[in-house]
Amino acid sequence: MATTSVPENIDTDVLRSLLDGRWAHIRQMARQSLRGELFAPVHGLTVEEHRERVARQLREIAATEVPRLGFSTAHGGAEDVGGSVVAFEMLVCDLSLMVKVGVQWGLFGGAIQALGTERHHAAYLPAVMSLELPGCFAMTETGHGSDVQRLRTTATYDPATEEFVVHTPDPTARKDYIGNAARDGRVAVVFAQLVTAGERHGVHALLVPIRDEQGRPMPGVRIEDCGHKAGLNGVDNGRLEFDRVRVPRTALLDRYGRVAADGGYSSPIDNPRRRFFTMLGTLVRGRVSVAGGAGSAAKAALAIAVRHAESRRQFTRPGSAEEVRLLDYLAHQRRLLPALATTYALHFAQEELVGRLHDASVGEPTSERERRELESQAAGLKAVATWHASATIQACREACGGAGYLSENRLAQLRADTDVFTTFEGANTVLLQLVAKGLLTHYRDEFGSLDTLGTVRLLTGRFFEAVIERTAARTLVDRLVEAAPGRDEEADLYDRGWQYRLLEDRERHVLEGLARRLRRAGREGEDAFEVFNNAQDHVLRAARVHVERTVLEAFIAGVDRCADPDVRNLLERVCDLYALSTIEADRAWFLEHGRLTPARSKAVTAAVNALCGSLRPHARALVDGFGLEQEWLAAPIAGGPGEGTAVGAAVS
Amino acid sequence: MATTSVPENIDTDVLRSLLDGRWAHIRQMARQSLRGELFAPVHGLTVEEHRERVARQLREIAATEVPRLGFSTAHGGAEDVGGSVVAFEMLVCDLSLMVKVGVQWGLFGGAIQALGTERHHAAYLPAVMSLELPGCFAMTETGHGSDVQRLRTTATYDPATEEFVVHTPDPTARKDYIGNAARDGRVAVVFAQLVTAGERHGVHALLVPIRDEQGRPMPGVRIEDCGHKAGLNGVDNGRLEFDRVRVPRTALLDRYGRVAADGGYSSPIDNPRRRFFTMLGTLVRGRVSVAGGAGSAAKAALAIAVRHAESRRQFTRPGSAEEVRLLDYLAHQRRLLPALATTYALHFAQEELVGRLHDASVGEPTSERERRELESQAAGLKAVATWHASATIQACREACGGAGYLSENRLAQLRADTDVFTTFEGANTVLLQLVAKGLLTHYRDEFGSLDTLGTVRLLTGRFFEAVIERTAARTLVDRLVEAAPGRDEEADLYDRGWQYRLLEDRERHVLEGLARRLRRAGREGEDAFEVFNNAQDHVLRAARVHVERTVLEAFIAGVDRCADPDVRNLLERVCDLYALSTIEADRAWFLEHGRLTPARSKAVTAAVNALCGSLRPHARALVDGFGLEQEWLAAPIAGGPGEGTAVGAAVS
């Protein structure tokens, strides 16, 4: 039905329960336990005070169920990977704590779990969970972040002593931006080029002690503090340099590569590229977690900005002394409500991704192709969700004016803390290129991740047809698409099948066009780098439109799970706003490719405006549905302390 | 000629000299004097340390020519308003210092100069210039920022004692976010509703002492600290509340409104609305300054990011061991180079605006219409330049990856400091609406600034035709437009006349469409607020496209001033990139309105890519042309201390 109307009364408990989803119990636990002075958001601390506070919070969390979630039951874990990701994303009271939890139990502990073998698990996991052993994940170097294959730290095996010699050959090989390194970490999982018997075997990970029990750097280890950062100053990022540091042979996390006492190398995966990407693939949980954390920060910012926009008034209506609430202005709605709709869409996409990650980690071993799809989905959502969070929190800050600039209102900190989310756990631009390569190769290439040349060569020989996989709500989406009118101009703008088909058609067209472009250039013998580089904007677009389509699919599936007719009706309108504002943002493409007529394109803009107006009365219910505790928001403009004096004032 | 080629050798001195423009001597003075430890950018200070440092810097500047620039020669000033704005924008070493300078000599001193009379000038200006008298500009209140007419602080005249009673009637009337209030200010220019003999005369400004010589709050004055902010923590923002504070009758800055000893009110401007907007209009200098400051911050960020992108390498070319410089990637060029081109365009627009402001303040009295045009130009450029700075610094941060997140590399601070520029000195959304109203009324309405109802009513009665005034390079632009082919499809994309005509035509169409829409609704008797609000996106668009057109005009005029053929040729390409990336960003509109065919729209995107490629070798020269001192950039990744070790490292 062509309508933007929504029901009047929304039960926010129903809404919250739907959003809480499969790991509702973890969310509830977080709401009950992250309370009181220790977990209250604070601001204006010095770096040292902030680090100390986060360390205290971390110790408190170490005593709960949370650290166990991500580890195998054999060593005291709860083997609830989905729960561990959800627990991470709930730490919105201070994103420094969120990241510190991620470093200790996600990256550091996760690497031992995923890359180590039984010996490492038994020896380390209990102390990792209890926080007796705080650690680091030392992958990035000053000279190489995105290009992990070219890391320069070396681990050279010495059969005489049965030790590895870990070494930083030059300053670009220094480990950089390493969380937990500047203050707390005692051991680091160090990624290094493994060398044995004069032969290089590519990047492997080793456990290297960096501090003794008294916190002094170990001999040969140089530790530097990265110092003050734009945000996340509760996390002690540092730099590590190794001067021929010796560790025993058992320090190698050897699930994917072993070195025998005599220096002989063996691996269950013969092909070195495949081995490398298999090892990297185990890090997928980190990316899923970051996408979730970005989502939480966007939700918190929207909750603050919407509450403020509902109470704050500015300028009178003509002919009236009554001042207008900010959220009644179209420009204000435009700033906040499409961002709110997209936050909902990403929430459902995240929920689905966490479920897939969880099922892949606890059930039957998955195929390599399935693993690659999951990695690709995680990479794409991480990129889109973190950019969305940056833009949304920024819009919220501006929508709160000068009040938004004061630290007491939290937006400044949320903005600064999340800013690096677009960079760490894989720079977004690099991640989107991985997604595009996966789509171009149908996840079928030999090694898990072709390089540029390989991708161009692979495409050169073959006919390419885009495969659009409907995964989240396959049957439902099939039905919706089939029910949509065949001719686009006849379809109602609010027809979900039409909206979906438009995004699906765009994905296919962009991808096939890209494949043709690369194949043609490849055939004509052009330089592979130039070919790929000249198409880089096309490559990024292919990934982005793919993610946007899959996010809509997840939103459709999420709405379909809602049994309450009023809430469902509301969510249908929110889904309309996501779909139509996504189409609007890219309407130039739809016009250029004859997918929208000019008149219909203008109608899309009008529909977005209309939806903003009809969702405006429900903005508060929609942010309440996120279920963020009032004390986590902690902003006077969002109803925290101080609000009463400023708003409920009598007129003299 | 349809070309994207540029000459090989660029003389950056010539480029810098062109950019330095009319106030080159001020820029040179800044380069020579803002040096050494005292003016070195720092980070990670506590709020108190930062405030103390900025106060020391301010005292140093008080001893220079800078404070005198903005004041009349009669009281020791230099009466060089343009110079004062340029001096402000050069303070890029610490934007807290920039803002503090702006508060003391621009807002506080400027208000005394513009709103006071001879008595105030003689009594206060020397002490303002010397910094003996630090002061505040207390306009914004907790409850009213954008809507200055509805401020709630009162100044009630008591003829018995010949005093004004300044009072804060309720907490929403508290003066908020006031720079210089929390720590240093001794006097505030307080904007309040003037009441005498029981009659209200609207908002006027009075000098109110807030601290004694020992820094203690004056009786009846309550001062609160706004505390930690997202940025600008070297500026001591505070809140002021007045409990029936008495000041003498002479405290009223009475250029536009006088109160006689008996309480009789008189003003040279009878109409209260016109009086109000005349008073507000004197604040135009602040907006021009903020636009300039935003430009400087964007330039500094680009200088850092371009230098980094020229030296940093990541990933190898296929079949080669050589790693690729970041700036060779199309996606990286896309991030930085259109932003660089727009920064150039805005520089020339700013240069022209400063010139107009200067000439209006030192020459013959200008007409009310000219003043309104200047105010509108300042409002529009302030909005566009500050949003551009936010987006550009953000892009630079992301383009520098993890290094961009470290405070030592300055981008974090530049981003955080400038964030509030979009809000203060007029929230951008409000400013753009002022611009649109000016365009709709041809600056001819009676009162200087019609309200919503007035605008709708004014339009209802009349036929509206958009007037596109070519001001910056009238003859030249006329010639270019005439020389462009009559049929758009025949025009070369690089034809400046065609580019300009496209922007001009868009401006006319958007504005006339908006006028028709408002008139129609007005005739049909719809609610004026609803009519205007439903068109708010259209209103904002009208202002934006107007500014974009005038900025292109200024860029064309700037290039025309360049005598060096190579530099001129380079700037022509930069101007192409500004024009075409501006068209590209809004190509949906051009497609929707039949101004671009789909094929031509795609060609615009291809041209932007091609221009990025051809300008890439000159990116360094273009940022060097800004003439920012190396020590102001102070980022290790931009060649500061530390760069050598990380980049020039030997391979072991």
Automatic annotation (TrEMBL), chains A, B:
EC number annotated for this UniProt entry: 1.3.3.6
Cofactor or coenzyme needed: FAD
Keyword Oxidoreductase annotated: yes
Domain Acyl-CoA oxidase/dehydrogenase middle: 136-245
Stored SUPFAM superfamilies: Acyl-CoA dehydrogenase C-terminal domain-like, Acyl-CoA dehydrogenase NM domain-like
Keyword check for Oxidoreductase: yes
Keyword vocabulary terms for this entry: FAD, Fatty acid metabolism, Flavoprotein, Lipid metabolism, Oxidoreductase, Peroxisome
Protein name: acyl-CoA oxidase
Native source species: Marinactinospora thermotolerans DSM 45154
Main location: other
